[in-house]
């Protein structure tokens, strides 16, 4: 019997042929290929997820065994139902690491070499220097989240003679970080930092982690950057902090509401860089993503288990 790998997007033929090489019993399909209820009974794996699939695939004795998320973050998925029906979940952690680390490094250099103010001055034909120029090694950079993205950024910063500080769940030591601290020490470490970068997944513990009190306790010369998840930041509190110069600058790629409404007051502020959730845009994405999928698919076929990036459905990461 043919088993289906249902995807929420198409992939190049070379990757579809590789599925057949690994196990010819599996066929790659898109939703439009499933024309009746019997077809859905053959879906054993999905690549990505759509809300409309909930009622078709989430029930007792579902044929679905494994979901491969397109993204690293999985907070938008029905994790409780996956757990109830014993459905395995893997994410794409690592695929976006270089792109996001590149994005963050670009922001750090532009901010500390005065590029943002230069761009604004150019619009008004103003020949004016920025107030402050900093070398990377002079900054205390706090990376909140020491997973694959945080590790890649830390390795970059080490090259530029900066030794970043890390925050993770339990403070475990990580390569390329000068020191690491547990999450409950975040605010203490943030008060001493010149740059705070959020790369955490969204969980109950990280929702509105960055709130009014957090920003008030940061240095008024500090920069806050978010490439993690939008709801980790209380948007109203961020706006207030920037408006009142409680922090000097923010670069935000992810928001509680996306797209950010055109009438949102953040757009009118001069001390923020707003990017439209682009930090993870990755050249050669399909090749990098499918390398993870094929490693897992091979192990899944042989042993019914997964090799890489399996998500704990209890913790959400």
Instruction: Give the N-to-C terminal Cα separation.
Output: 34 Å
The helicity comes to 25-40%
CATH architecture of the largest domain: 3-Layer(aba) Sandwich
Number of helices: 11
Gross geometry: elongated
Poorly predicted runs of 5 or more residues: none
Strand count, sense and closure of the main sheet? 7 strands, parallel
Q: Name the CATH homologous superfamily of the largest domain.
A: NAD(P)-binding Rossmann-like Domain
Biggest sheet strand order reads 8-7-6-9-10-11-12
CATH top level assignment of the largest domain: Alpha Beta
- Main structural class: alpha/beta
CATH topology of the largest domain: Rossmann fold
Measured by DSSP, the beta-strand proportion falls in 15-25%
Pfam family, one: 2-Hacid_dh_C
Keywords: NAD, Oxidoreductase
Family: Belongs to the D-isomer specific 2-hydroxyacid dehydrogenase family.
Protein name: Hydroxyacid dehydrogenase
Structural account:
This protein is α/β, with parallel strands linked by helices and 317 residues long. It has eleven helices and twelve strands. It has helices at residues 13-22, 37-40, 54-57, 79-84, 97-112, 115-123, 148-159, 186-190, 212-217, 235-243, 285-303, and strands at residues 3-7, 26-30, 43-47, 66-68, 88-90, 141-144, 165-168, 179-182, 195-198, 223-226, 249-252, 272-274. The strands form two sheets. Strands 8-7-6-9-10-11-12 form a seven-stranded parallel β-sheet. The chain has a five-stranded parallel β-sheet with strand order 2-1-3-4-5, with helices on one face. α1 packs parallel to α11 and α5 crosses α7. The chain is elongated, with a radius of gyration of 22 Å.
């Amino acid at each position: 019997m043919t088993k289906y790998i249902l995807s929420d997007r198409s992939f190049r033929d070379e990757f579809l042929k590789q599925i057949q090489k690994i196990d010819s019993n599996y066929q790659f399909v898109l939703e439009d290929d499933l024309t009746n209820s019997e077809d859905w009974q053959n879906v054993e794996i999905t690549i990505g997820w759509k809300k409309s699939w909930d009622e078709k695939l989430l029930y007792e004795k579902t044929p679905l065994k494994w979901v491969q998320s397109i993204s690293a973050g999985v907070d938008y998925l029905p994790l409780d139902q996956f757990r109830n029906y014993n459905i395995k979940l893997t994410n794409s952690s690592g695929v976006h690491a270089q792109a996001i680390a590149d994005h963050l490094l670009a922001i750090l250099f532009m901010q500390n070499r005065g590029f943002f103010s230069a761009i604004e001055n150019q619009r008004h034909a103003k020949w004016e220097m920025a107030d402050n120029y900093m070398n990377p090694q002079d900054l205390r950079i706090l990376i909140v989240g020491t997973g694959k993205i945080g590790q890649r950024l830390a390795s970059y910063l080490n090259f530029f003679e900066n030794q970043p500080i890390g925050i993770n769940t339990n403070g475990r030591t990580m390569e390329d970080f000068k020191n690491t601290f547990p999450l409950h020490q975040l605010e203490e470490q943030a008060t001493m930092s010149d740059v705070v970068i959020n790369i955490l997944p969204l969980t109950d513990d990280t929702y509105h982690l960055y709130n009014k009190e957090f920003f008030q306790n940061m240095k008024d010369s500090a920069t806050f950057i978010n490439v993690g998840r939008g709801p980790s930041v209380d948007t109203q509190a961020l706006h207030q902090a920037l408006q009142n110069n409680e922090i000097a600058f923010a670069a935000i790629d992810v928001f509680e509401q996306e797209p950010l409404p055109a009438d949102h007051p953040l757009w009118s502020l001069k001390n923020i860089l707003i990017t439209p959730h682009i930090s993870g845009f990755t050249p050669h994405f399909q090749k990098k993503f499918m390398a993870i999928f094929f490693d897992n698919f091979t192990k899944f076929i042989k042993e019914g288990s997964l090799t890489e990036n399996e998500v704990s459905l209890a913790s959400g990461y």
